[in-house]
């Protein structure tokens, strides 16, 4: 369901405030060739994951459907992981998606995240029952460093 203009403006104000306070958040995602805004990606603190009682930092994204399948999210998400681990010094980054969102879970796998089925949860901010169940994926700084140092395949 799309947001109204007022809801969108309120969300952008909230995101901008968080970026101003922390130095990171969800950033607009633009195509390099056209400058067109096609979605967002970034890092955001969250308390939505029950297995992370003290909160955690999630990597998230949204992309307009006509840009799906071109690798934009994979490229942007990898840059966000590098920022989170290399610049912010995070020890873990999580991601989660509706259980049947195969496109997002495929991105999570491509960027090196690992499914954590014991952490799957019903999202507390989602009212619709068919969208409530979320799958949890995680990546630690140690896994990130190991992935970055792995030799390239021929």
UniProtKB/TrEMBL annotation:
UniProt cross-references to InterPro entries, sorted A to Z: Acyl_CoA_acyltransferase, GNAT_dom, N-acetyltransferase
SUPFAM superfamilies: Acyl-CoA N-acyltransferases (Nat)
Gene Ontology MF annotations: acyltransferase activity, transferring groups other than amino-acyl groups
Domain of life the protein comes from: Bacteria
Keyword Cytoplasm applies: no
Keywords associated with the record: Transferase
Domain N-acetyltransferase: 3-114
Family annotation (Gene3D superfamilies): 3.40.630.30
Protein name: Protein N-acetyltransferase, RimJ/RimL family
Native source organism of the sequence: Aquamicrobium aerolatum DSM 21857
């Amino acid at each position: 369901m799309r947001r109204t203009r007022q809801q969108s403006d309120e969300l952008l104000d909230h995101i901008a405030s968080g970026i101003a306070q922390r130095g990171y958040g969800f950033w607009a995602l633009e195509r390099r060739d056209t400058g067109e805004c096609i979605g967002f990606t970034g890092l955001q603190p969250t308390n939505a994951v029950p297995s992370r009682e003290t909160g955690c930092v999630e990597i998230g994204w949204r992309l307009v459907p006509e840009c799906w399948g071109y690798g934009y999210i994979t490229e942007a998400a990898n840059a966000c992981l590098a920022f989170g681990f290399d610049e912010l010094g995070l020890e873990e980054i999580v991601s989660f998606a509706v259980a049947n969102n195969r496109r997002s879970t495929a991105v999570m796998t491509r960027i090196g995240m690992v499914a954590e089925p014991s952490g799957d949860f019903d999202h507390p901010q989602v009212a619709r029952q068919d969208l409530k169940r979320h799958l949890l994926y995680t990546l630690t700084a140690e896994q990130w460093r190991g992935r970055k140092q792995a030799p390239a395949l021929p």
